[in-house]
Amino acid sequence: MKTISSKRFTLIELLVVIAIIGILAGLVFPALGTVRNNARKSKASNECMSLKTAIVMYESEFSCWPAEGSSDGLVSSGDYKGMCKALAGDNAKKMVFYEVGVGYDENEGFMDPWKKPYNVVLDFDYDGRIKSSVAVVKAVNAANNRSGDLRVPVAVYSFGDYTETDLTKLASKKKLVTSW
Q: Of 33, 100, 141, 155, which sits most exposed with the smallest number of CB within 10 A?
């Protein structure tokens, strides 16, 4: 008597394959999220440096900063918007210091990859330093066991994708994206 061999998959075999695919997908998706977040951090870091360079170039051309700020040098959100417009070409000489790209919002200014405005600290007393009394500098110094002022005239940073505003916690966890 001849037996007919069937070349079909059984229900159990299909379920096993689907389960394996599900497990592999579960392992891959968190890794993709981490890769995506690292790419955003890298982009934000590059944009911080580019924005810092643009501000220094503006100051070199006009002999003044493109924004006003508080006594500690932190540029407020209102001044930030005006500074972004000035860097994008809305200045007396119509010079573009920072190219408007995907991360630009007419109402908010230059935005980081998480759609938040960058934070800028300027050296308003022109001594070439951002004071260590500025909250972000103090937090980063504490996280890195350092002390003293930043020896730069401009500092740009982003909170990244975190809603936490405690700079000390963010700096200690290396979550801030900075230009220094």
A: 33
Question: What pTM value is reported for the model?
Answer: 0.81
In this prediction, residue 143 carries a pLDDT of 87
- Residue 155 pLDDT exceeds 90: yes
Query: How is residue 117 annotated by DSSP?
Result: B
Give the Å distances, CA to CA, from 46 to 87, 148, 157, 178. Answer: 17, 25, 11, 9
Tally: H helices and E strands in the chain? 4, 5
Phi-psi sector, 168: left (phi>0), alpha (psi -120 to 50), beta: alpha
Domain-wise residue ranges, the chain:
13-178
In whole angstroms, what is the distance from residue 157 CA to residue 136 CA? 9
